[in-house]
């Protein structure tokens, strides 16, 4: 990477300025409350609403906001310098959020103070946090623009702005003419100029641990799109007091402050759960995001030239980051630096975001009206418990997103893939590099996420070709994917994004043999213990540990996704085949368990095992359900013993989708659930987040 001296490092801040900014009692919550009271009072007067108390004095202009404007004016020439210091940078971020929330002029002041320092700040540990906060808050719409707020009297907001920034706007400060000229420019020009500073070093920033995050924020602004939580709880825009919260208090804007210090609290030690699934141990939940149109400030919305320049600048960034300049003739190049970037810890997530943004842009341009977009999304209802994800916008053939995918996979678009099962090996051979790249990406932690994004965003025809070239329609190679600790998640994504019944049938055919041999099944014995005293709890836990059936490398997530695929896209024949394979697989587990009780020294060949499985009769639904759910007593502080049940998550989701099968196939399973468990057990199951879904 180039030396930091090329990036234009700001001077160290003065000690007096550092002491000044550190001593400011800035509080965004207090500023929001003061502004709310101020605006509410004068809006009532303007609307001629009668006040309940005539003796109430009119509130003064929010003191916290007035102090923030004065502070921003004081540190204007050392803004970039303070952004590189640990404690001052946190104060600067609070200052940015307060000013940008209620003033449009302050947005221009902040952008102007960072001109020529963007590249260095993007590579700095603390400066990159400030840079992200500035970009997002400047582009966001103000909650209330107090610069021009009509208070029915002297327009205090305008007076505060003139007192704070008058010298800067008139060019009377000691900063020189260059800074004054930049402040006089429009907000859109200042914002685009700031992002253009990053373009020269975009290749280096893409692989930088801090710079890549600033690039991701910049590309979101150029696309007018933000990423939000896919499973945002309902009613999140209202607090406990019933007050409506703005976007600054909740959602993506509430998380724009990057450098906030976290309180150091001692973490409570979690009690070890002997029945925990091996797949769920030591795992943090991965954040699932969806794209939403960003609500921008009115000055950007009304400037048509901003959108035109932003779109062209977005294309330039994509060309630079994806190294398109190295291949202008359109020929397929062998794997090189771009393929290495897909597995880079910083460049990999950036490429994934670029693909999603390009897919969203192409999807919007093809579908046109928002009504058509919203109507299609209603087909899938997102559910956090069941991990049902909303549908990702998909790009069309010939789009810029497709061109990016072809370069990432070294895909030769001139070759028509043979979609028949017999032609899979031949199709893989025709694509000189794509098959090996797909196989390599699927086993890499970051590359696999990119491959999952491609499966979600690609067109229907390319999805089928991707399965063929990657060998996902071949049982032997599919088994290798599933056994791997990383690539099995790619298989799960593939199953959830299957596009047609034909695809579902081909995948179900390959999965039946893998499920039947029970290599990916995880079975648990149901343990319903009677209420016990605290003294006996330790011994009972030991009993639970001894009774749990532990299996090596289970892949119940693949089984659950396979059943979900058959429920949503598969035919009744596919559903019947998967159910038969599942019951045979659990019968195989029981057979292995009984064989272990009567151990013999006679080795069994794979051929004998295969013949034995083919003759094995599947277990009944009454025997299969307890193995799927693995109900165990839950231990919750403050509740009575055995008051709840712990359910295996993957097994519960599998059962949920089985209950969505055709009536003739699910009938026995519904009866078995009601016959196996007592009323008390069903009540406890209903108290579980997954069990209540049935």
Secondary-structure map:
Elements: H1 15-22, H2 28-46, H3 63-74, H4 79-82, H5 86-102, H6 105-113, H7 118-122, H8 127-139, H9 156-170, H10 177-184, H11 187-199, H12 202-206, H13 211-223, E1 225-229, E2 289-293, H14 298-301, H15 304-321, H16 337-341, H17 347-367, H18 370-377, H19 400-409, H20 424-430, H21 434-442, H22 445-457, H23 460-469, H24 475-483, H25 487-496, H26 501-516, H27 537-547, H28 556-568, H29 572-597, H30 606-615, H31 621-629, E3 632-634, E4 644-646, H32 649-658, H33 663-676, H34 679-686
Antiparallel strand pairs: 1-2, 3-4
What does this structure look like?
The chain is mostly helical. Helix content is 55%, strand content 2%. It has helices at 15-22, 28-46, 63-74, 79-82, 86-102, 105-113, 118-122, 127-139, 156-170, 177-184, 187-199, 202-206, 211-223, 298-301, 304-321, 337-341, 347-367, 370-377, 400-409, 424-430, 434-442, 445-457, 460-469, 475-483, 487-496, 501-516, 537-547, 556-568, 572-597, 606-615, 621-629, 649-658, 663-676, 679-686; strands at residues 225-229, 289-293, 632-634, 644-646. The strands form two sheets. The chain has a two-stranded antiparallel sheet. The radius of gyration is 30 Å and the shape is globular. The relative contact order is 0.06.
**Which percent band covers the strand fraction?**
under 5%
Q: What is the average of the pLDDT values?
A: 81
**Gap between N and C termini:** 55 Å
- Widest sheet: strand order? 1-2
Overall strand count: 4
The geometry reads as globular
Relative helix content:
55-70%
The whole-angstrom Rg is 30 Å
How many H/I helices? 34
Residue windows where pLDDT falls under 50 for at least 5 positions: 1-5, 269-284, 369-378, 420-428, 525-552, 592-604, 635-641
Largest sheet: 2 strands, antiparallel
Query: What class would the helix/strand composition place it in?
Result: mainly alpha
């Amino acid at each position: 990477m180039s030396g930091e001296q090329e990036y234009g490092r700001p001077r160290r801040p003065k000690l007096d300025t550092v002491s000044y900014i550190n001593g400011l009692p800035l509080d965004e919550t207090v500023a929001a409350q003061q502004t709310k009271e101020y605006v509410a009072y004068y809006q009532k007067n303007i609307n001629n609403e009668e006040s309940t108390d005539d003796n109430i004095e009119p509130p003064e202009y929010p003191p916290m906001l007035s102090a923030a404007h004065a502070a921003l004016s004081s540190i204007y020439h050392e803004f970039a310098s303070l952004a590189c210091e640990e404690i001052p940078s946190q104060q600067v971020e609070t200052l940015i959020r307060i000013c940008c929330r209620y003033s449009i002029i302050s947005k221009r002041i902040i952008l102007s103070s960072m001109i020529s320092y963007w590249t260095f700040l993007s590579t700095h540990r603390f400066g990159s946090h400030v840079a992200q906060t500035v970009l997002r808050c400047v582009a966001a719409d103000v909650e209330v623009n107090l610069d021009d707020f009509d208070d029915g009297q002297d327009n205090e907001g305008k007076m505060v702005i003139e007192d704070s920034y008058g010298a800067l706007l008139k060019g009377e400060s000691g900063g020189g003419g260059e800074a004054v000229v930049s402040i006089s420019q429009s907000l859109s020009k200042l914002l685009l100029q700031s992002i253009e500073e990053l373009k020269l070093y975009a290749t280096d920033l893409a692989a930088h641990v801090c710079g890549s995050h600033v690039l991701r924020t910049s590309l979101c602004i150029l696309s007018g799109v933000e990423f939000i939580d896919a499973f945002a709880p309902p009613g999140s825009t209202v607090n406990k007091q019933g007050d409506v919260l703005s976007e600054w208090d909740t959602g993506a804007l509430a998380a724009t402050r990057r450098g906030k210090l976290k309180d150091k609290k001692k973490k409570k030690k979690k009690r070890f759960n002997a029945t925990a699934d091996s797949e769920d141990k030591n795992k943090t939940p991965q954040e699932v995001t969806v794209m939403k149109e960003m609500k921008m400030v009115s000055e950007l919305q009304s400037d048509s030239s901003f959108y035109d320049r932003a779109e062209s600048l977005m294309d330039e960034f994509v060309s630079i980051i994806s190294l398109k300049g190295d291949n202008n003739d359109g020929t397929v190049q062998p794997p090189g630096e771009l393929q290495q970037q897909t597995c880079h810890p910083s460049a990999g997530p950036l490429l994934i975001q670029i693909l999603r943004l390009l897919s969203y842009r192409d999807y919007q341009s093809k579908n046109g009206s928002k009504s058509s977009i919203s109507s299609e999304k209603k087909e899938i209802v997102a559910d956090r418990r069941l991990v049902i994800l909303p549908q990702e916008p998909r790009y069309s053939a010939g789009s810029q997103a497709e061109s990016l995918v072809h370069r990432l996979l070294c895909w030769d678009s001139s070759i028509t893939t043979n979609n028949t099962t017999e032609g899979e090996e031949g199709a893989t051979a025709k694509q000189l590099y794509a098959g090996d790249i797909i196989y390599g990406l699927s086993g890499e932690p970051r590359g696999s996420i990119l491959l999952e994004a491609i499966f979600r965003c690609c067109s229907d025809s390319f999805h089928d070709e991707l399965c063929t070239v990657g060998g996902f329609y071949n049982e032997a190679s599919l088994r290798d994917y599933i056994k791997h600790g990383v690539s099995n998640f790619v298989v799960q994504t593939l199953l959830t994004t299957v596009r047609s019944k034909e695809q579902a049938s081909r995948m179900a055919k390959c999965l039946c043999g893998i499920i039947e041999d029970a290599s990916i099944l995880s079975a648990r014995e149901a343990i319903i213990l009677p209420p016990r005293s605290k003294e006996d709890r330790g011994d009972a836990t030991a009993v639970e540990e001894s009774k749990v059936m532990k299996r090596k490398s289970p892949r119940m997530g693949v089984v659950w996704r396979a059943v979900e695929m058959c429920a949503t896209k598969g035919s009744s024949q596919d559903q019947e085949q998967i159910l038969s394979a599942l019951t045979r697989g659990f019968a195989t587990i029981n057979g292995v368990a009984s064989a272990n009780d009567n151990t013999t020294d006679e080795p069994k060949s794979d051929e004998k095992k295969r013949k034995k499985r083919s003759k094995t009769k599947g277990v009944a639904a009454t025997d299969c359900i307890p193995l799927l759910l693995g109900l165990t007593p839950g231990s919750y502080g403050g509740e009575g013993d055995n008051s709840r049940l712990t359910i295996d998550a993957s097994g519960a989701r599998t059962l949920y989708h089985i209950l969505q099968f055709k009536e003739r196939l699910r009938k026995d399973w519904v009866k078995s659930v009601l016959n196996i468990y007592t009323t008390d057990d069903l009540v406890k199951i209903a108290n579980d987040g997954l069990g209540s879904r049935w």
